[in-house]
Each structure stands twice: as C-alpha cells, then as structure tokens.
Amino acid sequence: MTDSLLDALARALQADPRNGTLWLHYAEMLAQAGRGDDTLAALRKAVELEGVRTQAARKLVALLREKGQYAEALIRAEAELARGEDATLRAELALIELLRGTPPSIPPTPAAPPSAPKAPNRGEAGARPAPRSSAGRENPREEPGAAQIDPDDTDPTAWAAQFDWGDLRITFRDVAGLDEAKRQVQLRILAPFRNPQIFEAYKREGGGGILMYGPPGCGKTFLARATAGELGARFVSVSIHDVIDKYWGESEKLVHELFEHARRNRPTVLFFDEFDALGSSRRADSPQFLRMMVDQILQEMDGVGGRNRDILLMAATNTPWNVDTAFRRPGRFDRVLFVPPPDDAARLALLERHLRKLPGGAKLDLRPAMKRTEHFSAADLRGLCERASEGPLERALEGGALSDITQKDLEAALTATRSSILEWFATARNYVRFSNQGGQYDDLAAYLKAARLG
Ligand SMILES: Nc1ncnc2c1ncn2[C@@H]1O[C@H](COP(=O)(O)OP(=O)(O)OP(=O)(O)O)[C@@H](O)[C@H]1O
Ligand SMILES: [Mg+2]
Q1: Whose Cα sits closest to atom 14 in ligand 1?
Q2: Is the bond leading into 267 cis (omega within 30 degrees of zero)?
Q3: Fewer CB atoms < 10 Å away: N or C end of the chain?
Q4: CB of 243 closer than 6 angstroms to any ligand 1 atom
Q5: What's the domain range around 376?
Q6: Are residues 89 and 145 in the same domain?
Q7: Strongest mean pLDDT among 19-23, 202-206, 281-285, 321-325
C-alpha cells in the first residue's frame, strides 16, 4: 500500500466527505497499511453515513473488539442493533460480552433446560441468550424458554419457532430479477412441498438441497425469506453464526434436534444461512467443535433409510470455495446455485421501488441510473437511493417544505457511489479459473463472461 494512494483517497474524501463507500474503502486501505487507529477513525466517519452504516458498524465493532476496546464496541453494536436487527452484530455483541466475562445482555431464557448440557464457557445454561433468526426480526411467536435444545417435552412447533422467520409477508413477488434462482427454488423446494403426490411418485430418497452463493447484498437471504413467505411456517432458518455463538459446545445436539424436528414435521425446509461460518472446518487446525458440527450436519444430511425424504435443504454462502467438498456429494447440497447481482430489469425495478415513492420521484428518468449501475448489488442500489434522497431531505429541512428529488440529486448520488462487489468478483474469477474442474461454478463463469468481468 503506497502512501500516495492513501493521500489520494484522503483528498477525494475531503472533496466528498459524505461518500460512505469511499470511507469504507479508505478504512480498508488503512487497515492493510497497518494503521489501526486511523482505520478506526475512518470507520467512525463511515457509521455516520446512511448508505453504509450497518456495514461500517460491523467492521468498526469487530475492530474495536480486536483492539480490546470493549466499551465502545458494545455501545456501537447496541446503537446499531437498536436501529435494526443484524445477525453479525448480534453475534459480535455476544462475543464481546463473552470476552468481557459478563453474562449476555440479550434476554436470558428463564428456565434452564433439564436435558441441555451445560455450555462450558457460558456459565449457567439458563443464562444462554435466546437465539433469533438471522432475519433478526422480533418473533411474535418466541416463547419463554425458547432456547431449550431438547424439544421433546415441549411443543415442538413452539421450540422451532425461534428459528423461523418472524415475517412471512415477503414472497417471490418482492424479489426483483433472479429468475433462474427462483426457478430452481420453485422446482426443487416449492413444487415438492406443494405437490407431495408427485414428489412421492418419483421416490425421492435422499434429502439433497440447494447451496446458494454469490456476492454480498444480492439477495441470498432475501430469496430464502421469500421462500419462507411462499411456504408459511414450515421453514426453519438457522444462522450458522448464531448456532456457533449461542450453542457453543452443544451445537451438534442442536443440529440433530433441528433435523429431527424437520423429520417430525414433514415437509419442512431447513435453511442454513452464513454457511461460510463453518469455513474449511474439517481442516486439522479448525476448532474441534466446528468440525464436530460439520460432521453432525453431514451425518444428518445422509439420513439413512429415506428418513430425510421430506426435508428440503437450503444454505447460503459468500464463499462456496471454502465450503467443505463433502457437502457437495449427491444427496447433500447437490445443486449449487449462483445468485447474481440484479440485471438491467431488476435494477430498474429496484430503483423504481426506492425512488418513485419520494416527492418528485414519479418524474425521474431512471434509465440512465439503471445503465450506470451495472455490477451494483441490490444493497448498493438501496445505498445509492438513500444518498440521492439526502439532498431533497436537507432542502426540505432547511426550507420547511417538501422538496422534490431531482435528476441532479440522482446524478450526484451516482457520481459518488460505487459498486461494493467488484472485489468479490475479483476473488471469484480466480476460483472459476483454477478450481472449476467439476463445473460447479459454470453459471458464475457464464455470468463473468457475459458481464465482461471474466
Ligand atoms: N433481488 C432482490 N430484490 C429485492 N430486494 C433485494 C434483492 N436482493 C437483495 N435485496 C435487498 O437487499 C438486502 C440485502 O440482501 P440480502 O441480505 O439477501 O443479501 P445476501 O446475498 O444474503 O448478502 P450476504 O452475502 O451479505 O448475506 C435485502 O434485505 C433486500 O432488501
Ligand atoms: Mg445473507
């Protein structure tokens, strides 16, 4: 990292101090240059900026934690969580509290489950936090005692409710683009669920499932939530981070119970989000409990004697190349599905969704913005639209009356915003080139080529 590059970035930021993406990039470069305190300062700026707030908060909290600045880390994490749930920050919070040696502040479960083994580094098992779905929404069905691992003596539906999405209103109609991904989910997940007779006729034996992968912010979790919306309550969503964090030392038992629950309530979709958290976990140097958890998942997936016949599996990851190849065997995640960034039509739809509702939004010409946002993630587009709305908002606050969003506001936002996923594609390209022997990244390879990224 050359100082001149850092200087150039600093100058760019002086000219455009509200460019959150640029602040994040600057912070990243500072981190690479080993300038920890400056990285913190840059991230503190970035968390003030709407479009990148959550992303910056995650990085800031993690860095503060690494530096042992727990008080600020906690305050920052809690402040961000108060604005909206976030699985990563929720996990950070628990980790920081663990490191500080204090009990978690997330509401404890009232009763210690009789059969749950004691979490070795958590103090009393009863003090374990109630896990939440990775969607992080408050779940109205969450019952006291929901963190019990053993669902046998309780209502199993209530027990599993803690892993369900709280909001089942999102459906496929809300998912812009992703036609092929939707088609696959439709075929592999929804159709068998809706047509059990056909499912039965083909004597599907093994479980098998879909592993979704792709750059961040392009809709893997969103698509899973929409699948849940399509299916209703028979969708159990498990954030691997949550499991690792909250069920440290007893995660194999939890995994077993999740599969058992799905077997008892057939058909059920089990969705494992943030699958990357398992890492290359069967490597000799990975923590033993992670390896045990992976082995347990593999064992459950194999389910002898058609026990998994009606369990539908989905998982999501940013880094499929780190997912243990054992997960790819037939009957396991045998369909690997690329979830691409939004195409032209999807970007236009997303821009319309975000901007049309604003004062003056109906008059905007969104096609230029659609053209200039190739390679933007859905999350980037949302950031762009938030930024474009800052101008009219400021004018309205200053003038005391609503101010229309203009083409110029949109133009300014476009100039100041960049795609956050190009780096992911740079990494992905290497894997496509060097480790696509089995053809598992063919759809990614085709995308790279079509998008001129390969
Ligand atoms: N295809 C889409 N249609 C509509 N909104 C989308 C779409 N994709 C993403 N979004 C919006 O962007 C947000 C981020 O997407 P999501 O969390 O699903 O990304 P992800 O692929 O799971 O990212 P990560 O790899 O970081 O977990 C969603 O909450 C949703 O609001
Ligand atoms: Mg996700």
Answers
A1: 217
A2: yes
A3: N
A4: no
A5: 344-416
A6: no
A7: 19-23
